[in-house]
Specification:
The protein is an alpha+beta fold. 11% of the residues lie in helices and 24% in strands. It has four helices and twelve strands, in the order ααββββββββββαββα. A six-stranded antiparallel beta sheet has the order 5-10-6-7-8-9, with no helix packed on it. The chain is elongated and about 70 Å long. The protein starts with 10 loop residues before the first helix and ends with a helix.
Amino acid sequence: REIWEMGKLLIGQRKGKLGIFKRNYKKNNGIASYSNLTWKEKNVFKIGLIKDIFVNRKNNQPLIKIRFIDSTKQKSYYELFVAVEGLYTCKRIFCGARAPLKIGNVLPLYKIPSGTSISNIEENIGDGGSIARSSGTFAGILAHQSLKNLVKIKLPSKKIRCLASTCRATIGVIAGGGRLDKPLLKAGLNYFKYKSKGKKYPRISKVASNPVDHPHGGGNHQHIGHPSTVSRRSPPGQKAGLIAARRTGIRKTKITLRMNL
């Protein structure tokens, strides 16, 4: 009886079927976001105290743990915020419409004057903050459109957007800037960097691999050897390359624009 030896599974197949590239969520610190809007935060403000400052394992951003007191239930609760530069433990944080204009406080956009650096901005009202959250980033307020209840801000990508004036934001620049300036110096540190994120390291070029490892592998010279476009309905193991591509190659838009001019 003949025994046929099958090839190895692709990394894409191993990621989907087996659980070998899953991130370890046991040591996660939690989600840093604003709490739901309350009457006190809409009209006055609430006061919290910074109890701890630590680094989030998920994306290496600095977080602060704030202790608030609920006066109605006579209980204290904790929230996680993204830390900005200039904060320290036992510092008071104000969140609300009448909060003072100081670093670390959370205010609605219509209460923040133009030219102020802000971070952790809500894209939609009450979503908890989704813009300018990574370390060292910030956005700036350009203008207020009071008739339309909109605020024009400049994003870290230099794009300009208009958001609702009741969206909340933190005053200041996210801490941890310049984190990527220091080089890793050796591949071993890069391995542990990717290991914490649940990714495989090192990543090699697939034309440099063997034929049993990838459809692009093998050959005396490093080349694919067949069209890199594959069908959407191709089976797993063959579905590698440009999947269901409408077109390939570099777009020649600049040349056509010059001809039109």
